[in-house]
Specification:
By secondary structure, this protein is mainly beta. It has one domain: Beta Barrel (Porin). Helix content is about 5%, strand content about 55%. The protein contains 3 helices and 19 strands. The chain has an 18-stranded antiparallel β-barrel. The protein is globular.
Length: about 450
């Protein structure tokens, strides 16, 4: 039951994760940020376990500024360090003392990480990104429980043309903090479960020229699930979001029309296991957005995902998403995306992952603040594709070699008119190849 309802809650959150520009690479991570899935045994300190890690590697980016012509390529040096802290899991507890396998009343996980990136070009200065996270759960398996989360992400990789008055000294730092509180109620049989919460999301940029994009969102998500078979559940989610831009004076000088807004969405559907190896999520719903200026939206949204656990070491998923998310141009963008992913482990030490996706998108009416068209067409529409492979080979329980190879492209005939270098979007047509190789030490 808990697994089903958690997915329902995740879908509620995913329906409105706050503002997201068309640039899917602005927040790109160097390698898998899910450190908890690949951590070592850790150092026990009382009821807590510490998981430190360090990574050193090098990369190559064929199109640093996501340009359509005159692309700048560069090699990149990466140095990353992190420390995660968590309460003991039930597996580790059961290995320690006889009564430790009982569910804990309080579960906690937190951590901090820092990324240092050095580009071998004088057009990008040395940059420092990072992340921090806290997850606190009280009575996680009881009738009533409380879950508190806070996640901070700082990304620093360039996301637009560099030809600005500030030249190569400009910072592309993008800081996002998401804090949420959720109350969960369950029937004693755990057949029924409901959740209601509040999420605050704050996004701000280092450079003043991007200050018009600073914004804050308030979200109220709720979900309900009914377990009608041991491994199947009917899930319903609903969410309301209010978003405002925090620098009204900056919006006046923005190269694109921005508007405070209210959005609502809901999804209903099925989540569960069909057989021992196949599981399915199928959700259908409706979303609407109301903006003070510019175009509103209302349309059907959907999510379908089929998962196949071919073997304990091989997993495959195939999904389709139709969603409407905020955008820095046109108020919003309608996405139809196909995504395929597989992960597998060979000889117990080599972990490989393959993923590919294709997204057909269309924005709302893209306008400048004076009401004129931002480009040579009323809407920006096109196709974005990605294909990548990730691998990690563990020499020992604390040392691993990682590699990442990826290709990202945006194909469109849309062209901006008098493109501003301060636009929080890449140029309308671009391709990028990336490659990373390095060593990771963890415990």
């Amino acid at each position: 039951m808990r697994g089903c309802s958690k997915l329902g809650l995740a879908l509620a959150f995913a329906a409105g994760l706050g503002i997201a520009s068309l640039s899917t690479t602005a927040g790109a991570q160097v390698f898998d940020p899910d450190r908890a899935a690949r951590e070592g045994p850790g150092v026990k300190v009382g009821r807590l376990v510490l998981h430190p890690g360090v990574a050193v590697g090098g990369g190559y980016d064929s199109n640093v500024f996501l340009q359509s012509a005159g692309e700048l390529s560069s090699f990149i040096l990466l140095v990353q360090g992190y420390l995660d802290i968590a309460t003991e899991g039930t597996v580790r507890q059961s290995e320690g003392d006889s009564n430790a396998a009982e569910p804990q009343k309080i579960q906690f996980r937190g951590g901090i990480g820092v990324d240092y990136l050095h580009y071998f070009t004088d057009r990008v200065g040395d940059t420092v990104g990072g992340d921090g996270h806290i997850n606190f759960a009280y009575n996680p398996s009881k009738v009533f429980s409380l879950v508190i989360n806070d996640v901070f992400r700082r990304t620093v990789r360039p996301f637009s043309d560099p030809n600005t008055l500030q030249g190569s000294t400009i910072s592309y730092g993008r800081n996002i903090n998401t804090a949420s509180l959720n109350l969960v109620g369950r029937s004693k049989s755990q057949v029924l479960e409901s959740t209601i919460g509040y999420t605050n999301r704050l996004e701000f940029f280092d450079a003043n020229i991007y200050g018009y994009g600073n914004n804050i969102s308030h979200r109220v998500p709720a979900s309900f699930s009914w377990l009608f078979f041991p491994t199947s559940a009917l899930v319903y989610t609903v969410e309301y979001t209010n978003q405002e831009f925090v620098n009204p004076s900056e919006i006046a000088t923005s190269p694109t029309l921005l508007s405070k807004n209210n959005r609502v969405s809901n999804l209903i559907g099925y989540n569960g296991a069909i057989t021992e190896r196949f599981s399915l999520t199928a959700m259908l719903g409706y979303a609407a957005g109301f903006y003070k200026v510019g175009q509103n939206f209302d349309d059907v949204i959907a999510r379908v995902e089929l998962r196949w656990q071919a073997r304990p070491t091989i997993g495959v998923s195939l999904s389709y998403d139709r969603d409407i998310v905020p955008s820095y141009i046109g108020n919003f963008v309608l996405l139809n995306r196909l995504h395929a992913k597989t992960t597998f482990t060979l000889i117990g030490a080599l972990q490989l992952g393959l993923q590919a996706w294709a997204s057909i998108y269309k924005t709302g009416l893209a306008l400048s603040p004076d009401g004129t068209l931002l480009g040579d067409q009323p809407f920006r529409k096109g196709t974005r594709v990605y294909a990548g492979i990730f691998g990690e080979y563990r020499f020992t329980s604390w040392l691993a070699l990682f590699a990442d190879l990826g290709y990202l492209a945006d194909f469109t005939d849309y062209r901006y008119v008098g493109l501003s270098p301060t636009l929080l979007d890449p140029v309308a047509n671009y391709q990028r190849f990336e490659a990373w190789l390095g060593l990771r030490v963890f415990y």
